[in-house]
Amino acid sequence: MENTPIAPKKRIFSAIKPTGDATLGSYLGAIKNWVSLRDEYDCLYCIADLHALTVRNDPATLRRRVLEQLAIYVAAGLDPEKCVLYVQSHVPAHAELGWILDCYTMFGELSRMTQFKDKSRKNADNVNAGLFTYPTLMAADILLYQADLVPVGEDQTQHVEICRDIANRFNGAYGDTFTMPEAFVPKFGARVMSLSNPTSKMSKSEEDANGCVLVMDSPEEIMRKFKRAVTDSDTVASPVYYDKENKPGVANLLSIYCAATGCTMESAVAEFEGKGYGAFKPRVGEAVVEMLRPVREKANELLKDKDALVSIYTDGAAKAAYLAEKTMRKVRRKVGLTERPRY
Ligand code: AQP
User: Fold this and answer.
1) Which domain range does residue 239 map to?
2) Which of 99, 151, 279, 300 is the most buried (most CB within 10 A)?
3) One domain, residues 169 and 218
C-alpha cells in the first residue's frame, strides 16, 4: 500500500495583552478556543506585553500579570510541550516587523480602526502613537509566524482584516511572503458583555469592577458579580429568553451559560422556562464558577514555582524566535535591507 503523505499541521497564532487580569471575556473569547484547537494545529500563544505598553502600567504589576497569564494559559490546558507559549517582548522580531509594516500601512486605514477610536475616547489624555499603530504590531505578530488561523473574540476581527490587507499589499509588491491568515471566532462567547453594562464589552479596563469577572476571582466573588448582574424589569412569568436587542443583559447571561456548559441556546432557554432572575442569575454564576475552578486552582499551584514558569517562557521564546527569524530573513531581503553582519 502506498504511503499517504501527512500534510503539515496548519499554524495558529493568538495573544492576549496583560493590561489587566485575565477576564471571563478573554477566557471564553480566546483561551477556551485555543485549547480546543491545540491538537489539530501547530500553536503559538503569546503574552502581548508590548501591546500592553499602549496604556500606562505599574511596572511590577505588569511583570506579575505576565507570569499570571502564563500560568492561566498552562492551567487552562495549553501544554507547553505541544504549544509554543512565550512573551512578545522576548522575541524582538515582533517590534522589527512591526516597524517595517508601519511603512506599508496607510494613515487612513489606521484612523478607521474602531478600537483606536474607542481607546482614544477612553484615554483622551494618552492618545499615543503606539495606540494608533497597534494594528500593525498585531499584523506583525501574526505574519511573523505565517499563521493560517487567528482565534479571537469578535472585537478583534477588524484587526485580522487589516492584517490581511497589509499582507496582501506586501505580497503584491514583493511576491508571496506572508501566509494569509483568517480569524476564527467562537460560536458562544465571541463577545462577552459587561455584567453591569450589557451593551459594552466585558473588558479588563472596565471602570465598574462588578461588570467584569476575572479568571482568578474566587467562587464567592464570581457569585456576587452574577447575582448583581443587570437584567431588566420584565415581569412576565418566563423572563429568561434570548432577545439581544431588547434584553441585552439576559442574552449575555444566556450566552455565557451556553459557553460555560456547552449546551445549546434552545436547551438553555428551555431549562429556565417559568423561572425568574432569582434562580437564573445564580445558576449562570455556578456554571462559571465550575468552569473556572480548575483553571484558577491549577494556576495558583503553578504560580508557586516561578522558575518553572520562567523555563516555559524561555523555551517558548527560543522556538518562536527561530520561526520568526525565518520570516525576517525573507522580509529584510525583499525590502532591501543589507544582510545582517555577525557581531
Ligand atoms: N468581552 C470579550 N468577549 C469575547 N472575547 C474577548 N476578548 C477580550 N474580551 C472579550 C478576546 O480575548 C483576546 C484578548 O484580547 P486582548 O486582551 O489582547 O485585547 P482586548 O480585546 O482589547 O481586551 P480587553 O479586555 O478589552 O482589554 P483592555 O480593556 O485593556 O483594552 C482577544 O482575542 C479578544 O477578542
Assistant:
1) 209-300
2) 151
3) no
Going from the Cα of 337 to the center of ligand 1, the distance in angstroms, rounded, reads 35
Q: Can you read off the three cell numbers belonging to residue 277?
A: 432572575
CB 206 within 8 A of CB 194: yes
Distance CA 152, CA 45 (A): 12
Report residue 270's pLDDT band, with 50, 70 and 90 as the boundaries: very high
Determine which residue's CA is closest to atom 13 belonging to ligand 1. Answer: 26
- Confidence at residue 3, expressed as pLDDT on a 0 to 100 scale: 67
Percent of the chain with pLDDT over 90: 85
112 and 175 housed in the same domain:
yes
Task: Give the number of domains in the chain.
Answer: 2
Residue 59 carries which DSSP code?
A: H
**CA 18 to ligand 1: nearest atom:** 17
DSSP string over 195-223: SSSTTSB--TT-S-GGG--BTT--HHHHH
The answer to whether residues 38 and 147 belong to one domain is: yes
Residues 265 and 322 in one domain: no
Q: Rounded CA gap, 320 and 86, in Å?
A: 8
CATH assignment of the domain containing 187:
3.40.50.620
How far CA 268 is from CA of 10, 27, 199, in Å, comes to 34, 20, 21
* Residue 196 is assigned to a structural domain of this protein: no
Task: For residues 29 and 109, state if they share a domain.
Answer: yes
In a domain, 238, yes or no: yes
Distance 326 CA to ligand 1 centre (A): 29
Pocket of ligand 1 (CB under 6 A): 16-17, 19-20, 23, 25-26, 28-30, 48, 152-153, 155-156, 189-192, 201-205
Residue keyed to cell 520568526: 324
* 24 C-alpha to ligand 1 centroid (Å): 10
Distance, CA of 153 to CA of 12 (rounded, Å): 14
* pLDDT tens string 250-268: 999 999 999 999 999 999 9
Query: In terms of domains, do 234 and 264 share one?
Result: yes
Q: Does residue 60 register a pLDDT over 60?
A: yes
Mutate to test the pocket of ligand 1, among 44, 47, 155 (most ligand atoms within 8 A of CB): 155
